[in-house]
Amino acid sequence: MDGGPGIKIGRILGIPIYLHASWFIIFALITFSLAKQFAYQHSHWTDAQHWAAGLITSLLFFGSVLFHELAHSVVALRYRIPVVSITLFIFGGVARIGREPGSAKQEFNIAIAGPFSSYLLAGGFRLLMGVFPSSDMLGALAEWLSITNLALATFNLIPGFPLDGGRILRALVWGVTGDFARASRIAARSGQLVAYGLIVFGIWRSLTGSFRDGLWLAFIGWFLLTAAQESYAQVAVRAALSGIRAADIMSRDLPTVGRATSLEDYSYEVLRTGRRCHLVVDNGALIGLMSVAALNRVPREEWATTSVQAAMIPREQIRWAAPEEPVLALLERMQSDDVNQVPVVANGTVVGMVTRESILRVVRARAEVGDLASH
């Protein structure tokens, strides 16, 4: 996915911007709905004007969503928190940051930046309404965008994770208690309550005459419920990995492969052993790192004529870990760099390998032992 799901459309401030497949569905629906709305409200316009207004307003709406996510991202970058990507999808947008904020203040400022930017846009479009009458195309666009950005900002302030309001709640609880895990659990639980409320209200609306709006609310509630549950699971992961170092979970079995090995032969080795990562050596010296991900970047028809050395990650580009590095920090770095394995180096020598699978095994084992201990 190259750092984010969907189609990459460019970069802003060095941040990759993606369009999820679901974005095209909601973009078409919003454009169609707006064209019909403008046709009803402005019957003196031509059909071409109705559709043009619908298309332009829809584009500006998603531009507003992107602006909202960029506001989060700019503040995160100010705190030296890497922003992996921004993705626009059916429910709006999401900025994926490389690690959690380091303090409650950072969390609060990153979270509040989004709603603040949307309120700012709502005010800007409101000013345009004062210049252009609502009967004109620009005035009609400004009116809809002002109301929508106002609603977007206000909805996001609902105190339920992963909405911005839920992150603000987490920041406040974190600041008061000094306990990130507890604050995350409270915000996640709040998010679940909000989600269940939206689902129930949406079903009620659907049964009392507003089927489409009710179904949409229930669908949003389901999405928020899933996200809140994932957030709660992430808290459990952080707790499970607390106090563990890279040296504690690394594998000391270091499979190697020669640089002249063809990718065809390397694929057979992967299938035979199930190992997804190998050190590439030449006369006993490490020269690179080969993985299934690197293998799949080469077209299948070229495997027989391409060597491992041509496809590997060169030694100077390998991301290393120190034996004493906390696994939680290492996992955040692996997610930010979008890598599945990291060699562990001590005194210039590779002494082990940490993979996402090995980290997951630790989390599962600790969860099972915790369950056994509770009985």
Rg, Cα atoms, Å: 25 Å
The chain-level mean pLDDT equals 88
Give the class from helix and strand content and strand pairing.
alpha+beta
Q: Per DSSP, what share of the residues sits in E-state strands of 2 or more residues?
A: 5-15%
Largest sheet, spatial ordering of strands? 1-2-3-4
Low-confidence stretches: none
- Tell me the distance between the termini: 42 Å
What is the number of strand segments? 10
Secondary-structure element order, N to C: EEHHEEHHHHHHEHEEHHEHEEH
The global form is globular
Approximate helicity band: 55-70%
SS field, number of helical segments? 13
Largest sheet: 4 strands, mixed
- Tell me the count of domains: 2
Descriptive account of the structure:
The protein contains 13 helices and 10 strands. The chain has 375 residues and is of the alpha+beta class. It folds into 2 domains: 7-157, no CATH class; 246-373, CBS-domain (Roll), CATH 3.10.580.10. A 4-stranded mixed β-sheet has the order 1-2-3-4. A hairpin with a 2-residue loop joins β9 and β10. The longest helix has 32 residues, at 47-78. It starts with 6 loop residues before the first strand and ends with a helix.
Question: Topology of this structure?
Answer:
Layout: E1 7-12, E2 15-19, H1 21-41, H2 47-78, E3 83-89, E4 92-97, H3 104-131, H4 137-156, H5 164-177, H6 180-207, H7 211-241, H8 246-249, E5 256-258, H9 263-273, E6 277-282, E7 285-291, H10 292-296, H11 308-311, E8 313-314, H12 327-337, E9 341-346, E10 349-355, H13 356-373
Parallel strand pairs: 2-3, 5-6
Antiparallel strand pairs: 1-2, 3-4, 6-7, 7-8, 9-10
Helix pairs in contact: 1-2, 2-3, 2-4, 3-4, 3-5, 5-6, 6-7, 7-13
